[in-house]
Amino acid sequence: MMGMAILVIVSFVNIHFERFNMARELGEAGEAKMIGTLIAGAINNAYANGEGFQVYLSPEQVNFTRLGEVEKMYGLGVELPITINNTAREIVIKRNTTKTGGGIWSVEVPIIPNNVVRRDPTAEYPELTVRNNGTNILIYADAAHITTVS
Amino acid sequence: MKILKNCSGQVSIEFIILIGAIVVMVVAVFPYITRANELSKAHAAARDGATFAVGMRGMGYKPLNDKELPPGVVKITKVEMVKVGNYNGLVWYRFNISVYAPDYIADNSTYGQSLCGTIINQALQYIYYAFNGRWSDNSILSRVNTSHYSFTATCTFE
Prior knowledge:
The complex is a heterodimer of chains A (150) and B (158).
Chain A: H1 2-48, E1 54-56, H2 64-67, E2 78-85, E3 90-97, E4 103-110, E5 116-119, E6 129-132, E7 137-140, E8 146-149
Parallel strand pairs in A: 2-8, 5-7
Antiparallel strand pairs in A: 1-6, 2-3, 3-4, 6-7
Chain B: H1 13-59, E1 62-63, E2 75-87, E3 90-100, H2 103-106, H3 109-132, E4 144-145, E5 149-157
Parallel strand pairs in B: 3-5
Antiparallel strand pairs in B: 2-3, 4-5
Helix pairs in contact in B: 1-3
């Protein structure tokens, strides 16, 4: 009787934890994609509004530390740096969920311009400022957070 | 002289028979319960894995070196468990996973195969984890064997 009870309880606990982890993985994946959409929105706005236009995304909005955090999560966070691919005109976000059986997943968020250039943040243009200088779309971000490829 | 009856520490013969009968019943049905539990655990795990795969693909994520799907609503509508026969001395069950996807995904063989492949693999990965307590070293699984059963999965579009 005790054996049966243990069997049933252990099964319920397993199902509970599996579903909890699955819900968290999916939630974090959605969160990561939303960050990509946010950055893409800023880039597109800077492109569409012409020279001199700039958008500032605060570090609170895009929390890179939390996004790439691996210690408190069961799986792995977003693989940083986030890649902006100018040739494909997309922002590529990768999530490594090999620890939770999901493998490596990536999502591409399309952007309009193909001339996005990363620059190191300055006092005038802090982290996550997106600016149109008339020639390129400049994104000010740490190299460990965002990278651009042609 | 008065005889004092000492009744403490004794149970009736009926009670002993009842307890004995319960113990015998439990022992007799225990193997069936463990097997039924194994099946229900696999079913739940397959459903979870398929749901995870559909959630990721529906959001636009794709596994490494796989095809990107066009945006659209993708849902699991049914996960059936069908007994197929025997496989290497194990009872073989197959999960028939029914998926709803837009026509431009379901009718396109490239997208359809890519989506189905992810769903099947993820369902089997979750089954593997449910029975082994760790994730498989193989990134692609086509079958999962347990102590009594062998599980495979198929995917069809509705």
